[in-house]
Design brief:
Blueprint: H1 8-22, E1 27-30, E2 41-45, E3 49-55, H2 65-76, E4 81-84, H3 87-102
């Protein structure tokens, strides 16, 4: 039997819980937007700042064109925005965040 893919909402919750548990004073919210392409999660991490995260359930699921356009627009406007497609990609992003906080 093939292994089922995790639900995107489970990974979103896990990431939001990780942010608030491992970065004291942080907030993390699921974004419910009326505009297509807006990332799934908004977080603010002390020492790092605001961050937007587009979640995908696994590496085979790619962002849609409107999501990529929104991520590019957010980055251009000064808000870091990333795609996270599995727990290991989240941990890689965490390493970047932690390094930035320590600098």
């Amino acid at each position: 039997m093939a292994k089922s893919r995790p639900k995107e909402t489970k990974l979103q919750k896990k990431v939001m819980d990780y942010i608030t548990s491992n970065f004291p004073g942080s907030i993390a919210y699921k974004i419910e937007a009326s505009v297509n392409g807006v990332p799934d999660i908004f977080a603010s991490i002390p020492g790092f700042g605001a961050i937007c995260i587009e979640m995908k359930r696994d590496p085979t699921e790619k962002p849609r064109a409107n999501q990529l356009a929104m991520i590019a627009a957010l980055n251009k406007a000064g808000t870091p925005a990333y795609v996270v497609d599995c727990w290991s990609s989240w941990m890689e992003l965490c390493a970047v965040i932690k390094k930035s906080i320590l600098e």
